[in-house]
Here is the input.
Amino acid sequence: MKLNRRGFIGATAGATAALAAPMVRAASHGRPKVVVVGGGAGGATVARYLAKDSQGAIDVTLIEPTRTYYTCFFSNLYLGGLVDLNYIAHSYGTLAAEYGINVVHDWATGIDRDAKTVATAGGYSIPYDKLILSPGIDFVEGSVPGWDISAQNEMPHAYKAGSQTELLRAQIMAMPEGGTYAMVAPPNPYRCPPGPYERVSMVARILKQHNPTAKIIIADPKPKFSKMALFQDGWSRHYDGMIEWVGPDFGGDKVSVDPGAMTIDIDGEVTKVDVCNVIPAMKAGRICEMAGITDGNWAPVHARDLRSKMDDNIHVLGDSCAQGDMPKSGFSANSQAKVCANAVRGELTGSAVFPAKFSNTCWSSLDENDGVKVGATYEATDEKIAKVDGFISKTGEDAAMRQATYEESFGWYEGITSDMFG
Ligand SMILES: Cc1cc2nc3c(=O)[nH]c(=O)nc-3n(C[C@H](O)[C@H](O)[C@H](O)COP(=O)(O)OP(=O)(O)OC[C@H]3O[C@@H](n4cnc5c(N)ncnc54)[C@H](O)[C@@H]3O)c2cc1C
Here is the structure.
């Protein structure tokens, strides 16, 4: 598909709109149109900020198939019995009712970059002046031999929250006494670097209560992982003897699974397991690939405004983009969304644009009241989003400090979800 590098011209957008049928809405009263694909950490935030800060000067459409968004953040705490499923469930009602966002519950199935329209599974063609994609991740097919998406009921990934998370929790609770939970950890880069290891902590927590002789094996292709010393210290303090981490030195990078037999093969050693949580290698949400704006796996963007390096009228946020030093996290996606909203609003309405600044913190719960964190601030350079400085919890911190970090993570959760959904 040919690149379309035209800037916003009202008349052109009107002509484009006239070609598109059927339309979701008849008219946007001459306002510039922004279409956001994906209503998660990046997409819901950018839609809300554009609608709120432009005070109606921009016509914002949000395309998201699910009516309830389950946050991946804190889904591990649901597995660990620390929050219930309702706690991580959010709806789009406030974005529509209070912010005037046109919420379309549908899948984006194609992008015509010349006509500047988004096609949906429901048969709509939605015109845009600016398109913002924040579709999260998809899995790299064949990255774990023996596993594909048709095996996700036997061997769940639970790396997109909702029914998969519920299924994994049910499987954990149904494990026989003294049974084995295996995790296949993903290679870099992937969403939420500490996510698999927080999950192991939370699975160990619930097993310690209900099935204390159960075992956890993690097969990992990476020689080290985020907050490794903090996790290993936490595992030995809370779950001593329950968790075996198998890194690449011991074959953690040579893994296949058999969902029918419920076995995992780690470097030729086959083990029968009761739960197998396969987290495959990841890539940008498929719609980025369909738009032709990826480097094969991820969508490269400019640091200052998250604009695609392949199309001036498209921005990509969150897990899908290749931006530099920020980890793929909900906090990062939310931070990028605010920078992007500011830049897009400036371009469409002439409002002031502030220099891009970003931040991220990833909290992880080792147990109830035992939280650790890692974080950093970032700035935009010509080359990438570049780390400025960072911080990380220390092993040996006292219980009061760990409890404060744990409680801080709940404060963050309340803050980010109201920043996303109003
Ligand atoms: C177990 C786990 C724990 C985590 N813990 C944390 C944490 O503690 N802190 C943190 O900051 N981050 C955490 N994360 C990471 C965080 O969830 C992601 O980085 C974040 O959600 C990325 O935001 P996003 O907007 O890129 O994607 P998402 O939030 O996944 O949103 C993508 C949305 O796009 C929609 N979509 C996809 N394709 C289409 C399409 N074609 N058409 C329309 N809609 C589409 C999807 O339905 C989805 O709602 C965790 C992740 C996991 C898996």
